[in-house]
Write a structure and sequence with these properties.
It is built from 13 helices and 13 strands. With 417 residues, the chain is of the alpha/beta class. The protein has a domain of 285 residues: TIM Barrel (Alpha-Beta Barrel).
Amino acid sequence: MTTVNDFRLKLRGKEYLPVIVGGMGVDISAVELALEACRLGGIGHISDAMIPFVSDKYFKTHYTKAKTTEHKASRNTSDKSLVKFNLDRLYEAQIAVVTKAMSRKQGPGAIWINVMEKLTMGSAGDTLGVRLNAAMDAGVDGITLSAGLHNQSLRLMAKNKRFHTMDIGIIVSSLRALKIFLRSGRRVDRIPDYVIVEGPLAGGHLGFGEDWADYNLKDVFQEVLSFVREENLPIAVIPAGGVFTGTDAKEYLQAGASAVQVATRFTVTKECGLPENVKQKYFEAYEEDVVVNGLSATGYLMRMLSNSPCLGANVKPQCEPFGYILSSKGTCLYIDAYDATGVDEKGKKLPVTDKMCTCYHFSKHNVYTCGHYVYRLKDTTNKLPDGSYQMLTAEHVFNDYLHSSDHKITLPPLEEV
């Protein structure tokens, strides 16, 4: 019987098991999870979302505190035009996290980093260029460009000595987006090594509009795959978003996919960066708890659980310590929503319902961002006598993708409590 383990992803003369763990931020796709995927022979992503904050968390650096101190004068005003990231510190933070991961790398797999264009950070081009080149300088195996069309990203990377020797790919949700990116690539003589086609059932920010439910991954994947084949382009096509079982993955591989990218089932593994109480929320979820809304300050739609603590919060804009969504003019959709929200009779700010402070709430893991099939996670593990669900290991989930058939999911051995 054919399983995922019978296929291989081939890139730049190397072979990998065709399972890629997606880049979930902030610190959800933690270094430990990427390392485990690599050890097992697949590919794991690190997310570079809010990387100075992540560096502070793991390495006791003080990038967030330094930025807060530097810009404290704007704390009580809505004018954030002077709030910028120190590019040297940003470079150091990216180097620190990626170098640490690469120094511990074991096994035949690879470690990639997911770099979001939508983290404008007060100066989009400058900060994006620093993050991209720092990751390359730190030796990461590949860079996945996400959350945007990345018209200028390849140009920002083009002078790096590794530009033509490492894996570079992009996440798209339409053939149109891929064609736009290819035009920018031809200007610097670089086409992507792979394209991840993300469907509307993916977790977190979506590459679709309000009509997302009118689309499905299989159609978008086939459209992109047909184009790549017709144009005879040496690009690996990788579907993502709703690939929940090993059988789902096998069917895409049989249809011509080079690999699959998966994420939701790894959110409840021990190596994932989410706190354990949040992982239990994922296990407990039902289909009716999954919502898609426009509350993100990025302007993108986002899929999350309806009991996420970020909903209806009224935290003061946290641009001084964070500010990852700030435009070059110091504006942010959450600042606008916060300013437009009134106060109650006691002078307390009312709940902000139009937007959320994306940076702050992701730093606190208050956004229970999830894939559509999060409600099926309870069927992938054991319910324990105390009512909680048994945490999985990345190795167990990875191997289940490799070897399962008939859409069956193997439960882990029941651990003693």
